[in-house]
Amino acid sequence: MSGELKTLWRPTGPEELELVRRSGWRAWPPRLPEQPIFYPVLNEDYAIRIARDWNAPRYGVGYVTRFHVPEDFLARYPIQQAGGETILELWVPAEELDEFNAHISGVIEVVHEFRPDLDRT
User: What's the whole-model pTM score?
Assistant: First the structure.
């Protein structure tokens, strides 16, 4: 594998983040039966929008995490355009998540935290 790392982001809620913490900040938890894919996103802005606009209102807090994976390993996952031009994701099948986690370089970091604005009506 080459040494070139790709930065990925993952918007997440508090339950998933707690499982990441328990892994020593090194792995994503197994998917639930209703979650056949794990989808990290390719840009920070998209991750922020999901964490701020969807996760924070739904779970009371939304987080954006950042982590790094070798580019040559990621080449097996085609980029998925889930909406607009910058709404890009990788779709990792749930059964491949252990192998994906083994390729994370370093630790998973929390880079943003969002809570609902209680003054909004």
Answer: 0.90
